[in-house]
């Protein structure tokens, strides 16, 4: 009766065991082996032959119902046991669900941690030095850790032409080049539109895609590199690492949204740095242009000294390097050389352009150009480093120079270096009223006054490397004065260009 009712209610097949309680353990085993939440258990003794016996019904995990007859005492025990088993199964199932949820969360945390680690790592390697960084350095710093971070065998960066974004300019590879530049260009062209709003992921399972017909490039993620509305290019992560490594704990065959997201984040960082690099480059170019404009302003006052500042700057940079100065100091001294006579802007034409010897009053006026140079430049924060050389390039080693009569090592090294180079160029350059003297004679004069007018150690270094100085002098070509464009058909040009 019970079995029939259970079967009817549950729509299940009813299996009846004629044998009695010994089956209990088998039933329990079956319940225990179950993956499913199971059993409705019940007892009924209405149909039993004697009042101390009853029928047990148990819904099994496979969907059937098992019924058998037992004595009452054993039936109660079997029933309780079965219910306990069901509770255990339910508990085990809940535990399994929680474990699965926990595993998923752990995987998410691992992925997030890896993403954060990669972003942090890229942020530190892509940190721009104050002087900017070349595209080569930026790519090599970022692409190599990026490839390892997302588990790609290599990453290609394809950049567009700086002046025409429709043209591909340069391609950089981290790791082995797995396909040709031509293939990359085709791939980018095929995905250009899609990549403009989301990363493009293609794996081996997408072999029907007409783009993947290259055995060496079997899977990739393509991300557009853009910042501030400017397209820089694309990054393409090629071929997923097929083996698990410590660096790629989540590695598996093919790229997923995890790698696409990582590549997109890193590409955004790279794009921001490319934008910053361009800004720094523009700032440096503006700075250089301003310095050249100042030099032009000086040399426009005295055309016969055309090129003097540039030559002195080159000699000074060379001598500074030979004297063991670090590269940063060499560049500072070069810049100082360009500007060392900026104060001559303040000298009257009659004195500045006078051919022949100056009298004492005129000499006193010309000697004010070092102070004038300091006054012109000292408020410019970016040029503060050049002030010692501008102010002290006419000091003499024995203390007889100007403006402050400093002596020996009290004279800043920039001033001592420029003093040697300024004198050498002045002696060996032609002037309207005299020809430049031979280099050998200039060297003799320098050596003759070493320790008096000039730092003896610098004179020794300079003269020992006179061939280098000679090459600099012979190789230097003064820049031509720009000639402004004239109106065409009576119309002025809207963009005025100069010949640099
Ligand atoms: Fe000077």
Tell me about this structure.
The chain has 500 residues and is α+β, with helices and mostly antiparallel strands. It folds into 3 domains: 98 residues, Signal recognition particle alu RNA binding heterodimer, srp9/1; 153 residues, 2-Layer Sandwich (Beta-Lactamase), CATH 3.30.450.40; 174 residues, Hypothetical protein af1432 (Orthogonal Bundle). Helices cover 50% and strands 12% of the residues. It contains 16 helices and 9 strands. α7 packs antiparallel against α16. The N and C termini lie far apart (108 Å). About 2% of the residues have low confidence. Bound molecules: fe (ii) ion. Fe (ii) ion binds next to loops. It comes from Rubripirellula obstinata. It is an enzyme of class 3 (hydrolase).
List the helices and strands and how they pair.
Blueprint: H1 2-10, E1 14-17, H2 23-33, E2 41-44, E3 53-59, E4 65-71, H3 72-125, H4 135-150, E5 152-160, E6 168-174, H5 181-195, E7 200-202, E8 220-227, E9 230-240, H6 257-301, H7 308-322, H8 327-339, H9 349-352, H10 360-366, H11 369-377, H12 387-392, H13 413-428, H14 439-448, H15 456-464, H16 466-475
Parallel strand pairs: 1-4
Antiparallel strand pairs: 2-3, 3-4, 5-6, 5-9, 7-8, 8-9
Helix pairs in contact: 2-3, 3-4, 3-6, 4-6, 7-8, 7-13, 7-16, 13-14
The structure holds fe (ii) ion.
């Amino acid at each position: 009766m019970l079995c029939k009712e259970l079967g009817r209610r549950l729509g299940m097949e009813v299996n009846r065991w004629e044998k009695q309680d010994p089956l209990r353990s088998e039933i329990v085993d079956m319940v225990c082996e179950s993956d499913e939440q199971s059993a409705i258990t019940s007892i009924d003794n209405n149909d039993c032959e004697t009042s101390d016996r009853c029928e047990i019904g148990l819904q099994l995990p496979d969907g059937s119902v098992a019924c058998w007859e037992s004595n009452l005492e054993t039936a109660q025990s079997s029933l309780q046991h079965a219910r306990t088993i069901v509770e255990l199964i339910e508990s085990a199932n809940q535990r399994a669900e929680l474990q699965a949820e926990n595993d998923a969360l752990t995987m998410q945390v691992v992925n997030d941690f890896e993403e954060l680690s990669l972003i942090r790592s890229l942020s530190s390697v892509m940190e721009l030095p104050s002087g900017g960084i070349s595209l080569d350095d930026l790519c090599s710093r970022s692409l190599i850790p990026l490839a390892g971070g997302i588990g790609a065998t290599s990453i290609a960066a394809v950049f567009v032409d700086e002046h025409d974004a429709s043209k591909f300019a340069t391609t950089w590879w981290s790791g082995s080049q797995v396909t040709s530049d031509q293939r990359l260009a085709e791939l980018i062209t095929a995905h250009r539109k899609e990549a403009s709003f989301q990363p493009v992921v293609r794996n081996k399972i997408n072999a029907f895609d007409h783009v993947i017909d290259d055995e060496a490039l079997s899977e990739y993620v393509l991300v557009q590199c853009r910042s501030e509305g400017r397209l820089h290019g694309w990054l393409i992560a090629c071929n997923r690492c097929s083996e698990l490594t410590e660096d790629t704990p989540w590695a598996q065959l093919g790229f997923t949204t995890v790698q696409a997201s990582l590549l997109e984040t890193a590409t955004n960082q790279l794009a921001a740095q490319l934008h910053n690099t361009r800004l720094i480059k523009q700032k440096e170019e503006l700075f250089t242009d301003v310095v050249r404009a100042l030099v032009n302003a000086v040399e426009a006052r005295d055309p016969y000294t055309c090129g003097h500042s540039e030559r002195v700057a080159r000699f000074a940079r060379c001598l500074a390097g030979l004297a063991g100065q670090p590269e940063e100091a060499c560049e500072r001294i070069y810049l100082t050389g360009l500007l060392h006579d900026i104060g001559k802007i303040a000298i009257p034409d009659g004195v500045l352009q006078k051919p022949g010897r100056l009298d004492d009053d005129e000499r006193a006026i010309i000697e004010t150009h070092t102070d004038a140079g300091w006054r012109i430049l000292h408020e410019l924060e970016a040029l503060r480093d050049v002030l010692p050389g501008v102010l002290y390039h006419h000091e003499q080693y024995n203390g007889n120079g100007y403006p402050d009569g400093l002596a020996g090592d009290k004279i800043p090294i920039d001033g001592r270096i420029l003093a040697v180079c300024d004198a050498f160029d002045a002696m060996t350059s032609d002037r309207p009223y005299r020809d430049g003297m031979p280099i050998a004679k200039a060297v003799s004069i320098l050596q003759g006054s070493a320790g008096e007018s000039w730092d003896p150690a610098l004179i020794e270094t300079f003269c020992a490397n006179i061939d280098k100085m000679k090459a600099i002098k012979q190789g230097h070509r003064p820049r031509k004065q720009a000639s402004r464009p004239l109106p065409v058909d009576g119309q002025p040009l809207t963009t005025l260009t100069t010949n640099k």
